[in-house]
Automatic annotation (TrEMBL):
Keywords tagged on the record: Membrane, Transmembrane, Transmembrane helix, Transport
Name this protein carries in UniProt: UMF1 family MFS transporter
Segments forming domain Major facilitator superfamily (MFS) profile: 236-426
SUPFAM superfamilies documented for this protein: MFS general substrate transporter (SSF103473)
Amino acid sequence: MRRFSKEEKSWMMYDWASSAYSIIITTAVFPIFYKAAATSAGVSAADSTAYLGYTVAIATFILAMLGPILGTIADYQGFKKRFFIFFFSLGVLATAILAFIPSDQWLLLLICYTFAAVGSTGANVFYDAFLVDVTTEEKMNRISSRGFSYGYIGSTIPFIISIAVILLSQNGIIPISATIASKIAFLITAIWWLIFSIPLLKNVKQIYYIKREPKPVANSFKRLAKTLKEIRKYRALFLFLIAYFFYIDGVGTVITMSTAYGTDLGINSTSLLIILFVTQVVAAPFSILYGRLSERFTGKKMLYVGIFVYMIVCIYAYFLKTTLDFWILAMLVATSQGGIQALSRSYFAKLVPKEKTNEFFGFYNIFGKFASIMGPILVGVTAQLTGKSNTGVFSLIILFIIGMIVLARVPEPKTDKTIPPNTISY
């Protein structure tokens, strides 16, 4: 008997594909490239970090508004894949365009980055919702965690190639500038993302859906309004979303702002790239470990572990001074960043009604993305007020504390083995 089905493997491969964007564009090369462009234009370090935070906030606000609406429409037969393809294509195209923007146009870089971020996060809404279509509830923790592991492993390959090109250019071994090398990294990301998304595009299909009906958009708004009116019916689900809103805020902010924060500490770009590479390598086995431990201790208890680790990260970040300190911080993050995201995804997938996964993953997105607005703004404003980025990172600890308290009130999801894949009509 095969360990994983073709659909499960194809779904996990999208993490392999899209994680190249996460590390090269969101975390590593682009922030360094942007910071250099902003600095050369006379923008201060604190201000450029703040502007990046505001840009992330704008992109996530757009998706937060669109998520539940598009998700509700996507619950109709055949719509989930269409919406996924649209946002996926937008993300890949915008990422490729980054390579052709002049390096001195830092504002234009941020605008294009906004489109890339909308495409990436938008595609992830529907990708996450496909989890219920490709596997059983008993395997969701394992599949979700292994997907994140695939992402960390897969992203290291284009990351290594990108680092090699950048370092070789910096040392004059290849006759191109560091600016051109960074742009090549953007193209590598777009190509990698495109090619390894093909298995999902080909093999993953929407199994749970609502039959199409006249006026799907109008009826989608009615269904969304009905869900909001019946919010008490989904008490456990929305309690989890509130907890998720707070703790994922800190997780996302640490990930998206880490490179800019390291730059402000005076860590050179080469050291940052190496640290981020090692972080990816370490995170892969820990993601799988979280999945396996969740089957023994439950996903909820492992979420507690991940939140606690991030609380330690916030405290330690406040006292960061050296490159060694940043190394230690990065390794702490590596132990839990994949696990906490993977188990949050599978925990939520077990709570949602299968025929309404897109609608509810739209809410999952809006709660997660609104949190992503609050976190970067908090770091940006605090950095500008104090002139120190570490103060903003430390302030995130309150979000993890609130998230843990609310999560304690969420019941463990019940595994339902009785619902067969079918067509559901209202």
